[in-house]
Design a protein that fits this description.
Layout (H helix, E strand, L loop, with lengths): L2 E3 L3 E6 L2 E7 L6 E6 L2 E7 L9 H12 L8 E5 L5 H9 L4 E6 L2 H10 L8 E5 L2 H7 L5 E6 L14 H10 E13 L4 H11 L4 E6 L1 H4 L5 E8 L5 H9 L6 E4 H8 L26
Parallel strand pairs: 6-7, 6-9, 7-8, 9-10
Antiparallel strand pairs: 1-2, 2-3, 3-4, 4-5, 10-12, 11-12, 11-13
């Protein structure tokens, strides 16, 4: 069990570090999950459609557009955190079949105990490595694969290679989509390489993010949407422009220029993603 600081904050050791569940002072029954001080998830237990983090709203916008409103989807979530997107999908697409792969068993236990999600036999949370989960999945078994995996605020190397991306492509049905949260900062080497790597197997793609992040001016989150058919760029552009924190969408020639000849990453030379700058999360703790 976790120990409490003050009246509400919960602090617990989990398998990947120290987890904190911090109440949101502005929204009753809402909490932010931090791991070793880095914000990982925000959940509103009363309203799972409320999404606090801008990159999560961009992932959700893509989920909203991959099928007609309310239509159930088959979704594989790589990385669980506090299950923000699985809860959102439960609420917006009832009947969806979802599998969540989270490597940290103690974290899953903490979230299950303190921030329980609605019981649903179609939502299964499993303790497993993300790539191992992919490799065990059947061909064409998912409509959407969402990747939001961080260890020590970095994406593990084995989830950045073209061999990994090929496994994602294999488990997606032909019209399916890969949605990935990519964190990077100047000069965006990791993000450019990830665009090149994923497009080697899922060539139709776009990248959504804050303009300053896309221009390499600061560290932040970018959302990659990739598949075998063209993504809904006009709709995603409207969603990004109308967000609380407006963003841009790169596609076509702009995305080609962004990748800028970056080399495809292979297992043999893969590295963890770029670490965040020191102190970047200190204000949000």
């Amino acid at each position: 069990m976790g120990r409490r600081r003050g009246t509400d904050r919960i602090v617990a050791r989990v398998d990947t570090g120290e987890a904190e569940l911090v109440p949101d002072a502005d929204r009753p029954r809402s909490f932010t999950l931090l791991l070793d001080g880095a914000p990982q998830s925000h959940v509103d237990l009363a309203d799972p459609t409320h999404l606090e983090f801008e990159y999560v709203r961009r992932l959700a916008a893509a989920l909203d557009l991959v099928a007609p409103p309310g239509a159930p989807l088959r979704v594989l979530h790589l990385g669980g955190g506090a299950l923000t997107l699985p809860r959102y999908t439960q609420a917006t697409r009832p009947g969806s079949t979802q599998r969540v792969s989270e490597v940290d068993a103690a974290l899953v236990g903490l979230v299950r105990r303190e921030l329980p999600w609605p019981a649903d036999p179609r939502l299964k949370v499993r303790v497993a490595d993300a790539r191992a989960t992919l490799e065990s999945a059947r061909d064409g078994s998912y409509d959407v694969v969402v990747a939001d995996v961080f260890a020590g605020a970095r994406t593990p190397a084995h989830l950045t290679s073209v061999e990994y991306a090929a496994e994602v492509a294999r488990v997606l049905h032909p019209g399916g989509w890969y949605l990935a949260n990519i964190a990077d900062g100047p000069p965006l080497r990791h993000a450019r390489a990830q665009v090149a790597t994923v497009r080697a197997v899922l060539p139709r793609a776009c990248l959504i993010g804050d303009a300053a992040v896309l221009r390499g001016r600061r560290y932040g989150n970018l959302v990659l949407v990739a598949g075998r058919v063209e993504p809904p760029v006009p709709e995603l552009t409207r969603r990004a422009a109308g967000d609380w924190f407006p963003g841009r969408v790169l596609a076509g020639d702009e995305l080609d220029r962004f990748a800028g000849g970056a080399a495809v990453v292979r297992d043999a030379d893969a590295t963890d993603s770029t670490p965040p700058p020191p102190g970047i999360f200190s204000v949000r703790r």
